[in-house]
Request: fold
Amino acid sequence: MNSKKCVVSIIGIRPDFVRTSEILKKLDKEFNHICIRTDEYRDTLVAYAFFGDLKIRCSDYYLESTDDNTCTFYCKLFVKMNISPELIIFVGDSDVTCLAKPFKQKGYKICHIEAGMRSHNKNMCEEHNKIICDQYSDLLFAYHYDNKKELQKENITKNVYVVGNTVFEVVNKLFDPSKFVNDDNYDGKTDSDKLIKRKDMILVDIHREENLNSKNRMINIIKYLHYCYAKYNLPINILFSHKLENIINKFNLNMGIIKFTPLKRWRTYLNTCYHSLFVVSDSGTAQEELGTLNVPVIVPRDYTERPQSYDANMSIYLNINSTHNKTWLKTFDYIDNIHNKTLKMNLTWLGDGDTSNIIIKHIQTFLDLHMTDKLA
Reply:
């Protein structure tokens, strides 16, 4: 019989496997860990190659249908497979995190990794997901002290721990830029500042509803990308998705010189970003991970849950509500200053790179105290 405490992680989208990969490995080692993947975005890149990149095992259970993504279904699964979770872990802000409420009402202990992140954009479903999960969590891990302050505003103060950023740890441990430089130019040194970056493209990732659902915003994003092409004379490659393709067809958008590039497994994606002059992305994760590679990120969002990235010169806001305003030119100054090293990125807000160990220790302490309370 396995005497280790039972911990269940429920993960909904591909980026959350990236950000928790080091944690998942340690959960396997320290606990009877059951990992459930919901794959709510039908992301075909969550496959053996993807898990291989992250050096993690495949999940124990995979829910193919969103109809199964209910508390009732999970509880039936727990009974059928004799699973008795002492802690259920949710990550980020995908739809599955809303299950924190019904699980809590059934008496389970809940943990949320990425607690306290707020964009203050109430039109985003992700914002509601985060708030709900935090409200019903017993153990909360915040990336930054700003996130802890957000929780305090919502009267969430118990068992809140600032642990640093999980993505920062993963990129540092698993991505080695020295393996992706031109061999003719690589001198064998490991200092990433001495590695040759090709800077031979501009990579684009647009997938958030706030952009895709607005014809005006999409038109202005495309105009901005054409200004980028005129300024830097580099290929503009945008990550393909069927949703993006449908929006382009629906709005009859003229992509011009912008070319689709396939979605990529994680290491290939980072490699592509590493050798891009800069990245235009509405992904929150890009604001965290690409600074580790010294790659500037242009953010076409009116709200962000990672304002620290702006303050740290890791990314810059792009106003796309109107055409070619001052912020468009400001982004070019930002890119040029990063690459000529007159402006430097500050990575200290991401933590010390030991986040997974810190989280595991807090989980162990929490469960030990919880078991003591149950026996009392």
Observations:
- Residues 284 and 306 are 7 Å apart (CA to CA).
- The domain at 6-164+352-375 is CATH 3.40.50.2000 (Rossmann fold).
- Residues 182-190 have pLDDT under 50 and may be disordered.
